[in-house]
Amino acid sequence: MAASNFSTLCSSSHSKPSSFPFCNTQSFITTTNNNNTLFLSNTNSLQTLLSHSTHNPRYLLPLPCTKATNTFASFDDDDEKPREECGVVGIYGDPEASRLCSLALHALQHRGQEGAGIVAAHDNLLHSVNGVGLVSDVFDESKLSQLPGSSAIGHVRYSTAGHSKLCNVQPFVAGYRFGSVAVAHNGNFVNYRSLRAKLEDNGSIFNTTSDTEVVLHLIATSKHRPFLLRIVDACENLKGAYSLVFLTEDKLVAVRDPFGFRPLVMGRRSNGAVVFASETCALDLIEATYEREVNPGEVVVVDHTGIQSLCLVSHPEPKQCIFEHIYFALPNSVVFGKSVYESRRKFGEILATESPVECDVVIAVPDSGVVAALGYAAKAGVPFQQGLIRSHYVGRTFIEPSQKIRDFGVKLKLSPVRAVLEGKRVVVVDDSIVRGTTSSKIVRLIKEAGAKEVHVRIACPPIIGSCYYGVDTPSKEELISNRMSVEEMKEFIGCDSLAFLPLDRLKMLLEDDSPNYCYACFSGKYPVQPEEHETTSLHEFDWDDALNNGSLKPIEEEGWVRNQEGVSEDKIVSV
Ligand code: SF4
User: Fold this and answer.
1) Glutamine amidotransferase type-2 domain location, by residue (predicted)?
2) Catalytic residue from among 86, 281, 359, 467
3) Quick check: CB of 561 below 6 Å from ligand 1?
4) CA distances from 6 to 11, 19, 73, 214 (A)
5) How many Å apart are CA 102 and CA 109, to the nearest integer?
6) Which domains can be identified in the chain, with CATH numbers?
7) Do the Cβ atoms of 315 and 448 come closer than 8 Å?
């Protein structure tokens, strides 16, 4: 039995096999066996695993990260914003792959600050370094020099599933019957718990609490061959949001879920190297030219033969996350084919048109409210000024995530400019309101600086529901827009007027593209049933089980992929 093999190996080297801490040292080993077993290991168990490996074991080099710690002690949480999910990057065909990967991760740092990792392929081996903290904390020259090779994948993490521990920092690397594979994931599987339970029933042993690990187990236990079809088979079991990059000894694979919740773009460097990234800002930094998005439901494979593409079952209407345009993505990125900057500027213009107010100055809650505030000011014909200064030097580790300290954190992070605010009727533009407590503190700051009136304008609709697709939002009960009317919120926040971007105006702005976006946190209508989370209003959901029926189907009409059920490798058409 595969599972008992693994259990025996582990227990022979650890007194507590159930707490097998493979990821603390970031080293991995793969063994060749005749079962569909997934092997994840650490340096402590290296010798034991070697002695039990029967055929040609292949090693993944141990590269412990010296700055790593076991847990995240704390991080700033004063913004009360939905948290960015994660950022992924993949590079194939550049001798500086891991260095470029670290730069690209730096460009994606806003998507996750808890941990970062890179896996590079060289000489038929996968090398891995990851750690807790910012990209610049985890990677220095000595670490990068230990990641040779011309292909690499990387990840920056904010945990939306799984605990904030080093063992959950991606990419994850594992060995299975036919080789080694690494994976980095942006999104959330809504059926993670049932998948994990099923895999554990069948003998799988999990090393992390991250939902991403199920992908590796699904690949290892798939009966399909070659590797590409194992990935497809694994993805057909997944429900929810996933933009994934995989790395093997000789291939880079990028996958986007059939609904396309999370972004994933493809670009190319002048030397022909292929790059995948969560946002185009990463391509820009490493001088890769944007080519296109990875389409919803598409699987793109890059290897020495070129680029191939096939698809999972595609959904007739993608459901791309509108919050990428509202808050997550950087304004200089192009996401889902649209400029984020342009979207935010228009959100501000709509607010000025729909909810005008007599005022002397327009200011922003920096940084994410700035572009919408510029749009508001231009449309209203009122000067935009910097009424709040954001400190970029507030430490991340001493602010405890308690309410008391969070109050303090707002003042640490934002300073009012009395010269701009005193005696003025102020419009302050923010990107969103989640719990509302930060907004009330910001209004108080502005009033204490002498503002005569404070009018709050929010560049998104009221958030009334949690996200199940890779964005960390509080429970529905904690969301102020779910608990209060706009008038009640105005009283709670202490402003003179409050207005949100109307959902119907947001949809009008998107025109024909409107049905291709997810608005679930504003509408409560979830395109994929959040089956493993408690919900109070199931009747509100738009039931859609298209992912249940995932299979390889011809979609000639799509034009970008040709594939048939029961596809074999030679039927996959290069693009
Ligand atoms: S629920 Fe909201 S945050 Fe989540 S994917 Fe949909 S639009 Fe984005």
Assistant:
1) 86-305
2) 86
3) no
4) 8, 14, 32, 17
5) 10
6) 59-321 (3.60.20.10), 345-515 (3.40.50.2020)
7) no
